[in-house]
Specification:
Elements (H helix, E strand, L loop, with lengths): L4 E4 L10 E2 L2 E2 L5 H11 L12 E4 L4 E4 L4 H13 L8 H11 L3 E5 L7
Antiparallel strand pairs: 1-6, 2-3, 4-5, 5-6
Helix pairs in contact: 2-3
């Protein structure tokens, strides 16, 4: 009878630019947006995926990214151990961009992320 959740899937490459808490969700640093959402949710957050996905049930918002800054640091360490240059490396730069922004945003009805 009604839509329970709308998910924006294309991230920074998408045409849709959702604005939440006064900022562009896909153009704002992931940590900055997470802090804003945490503030607006009264401190309630579900982080069962260790930084890849956060849900804020009190405000019906969920965010997801494919990689985290810790993943990128691990990748850099492995590359360096293998003798692969990481400075000015296009793969490192791409992973850093992916880790620094949320790739999807879901906006659901109140309680959607409590299910």
């Amino acid at each position: 009878d009604r839509v329970e959740c709308v998910e924006f899937l294309a991230g920074a490459e998408g045409a849709l630019r959702p604005v939440i808490c006064g900022v562009s969700a896909f153009d704002t640093d992931a940590d900055v947006l997470a802090d804003l959402l945490l503030e607006h949710s009264g401190g309630e957050v579900i982080d069962e995926e260790r930084g890849y996905s956060l849900q804020f049930p009190a405000i019906g918002i969920g965010v997801y990214r494919e990689t985290t800054p810790a993943d990128v640091q691990q990748m850099i360490g492995e590359m360096q151990a293998d003798g692969i240059p990481t400075e000015d490396n296009e793969d490192v730069a791409a992973e850093l961009r992916r880790a620094s922004r949320w790739a999807t945003l879901g906006a659901g009805v109140a309680g959607y992320y409590r299910r």
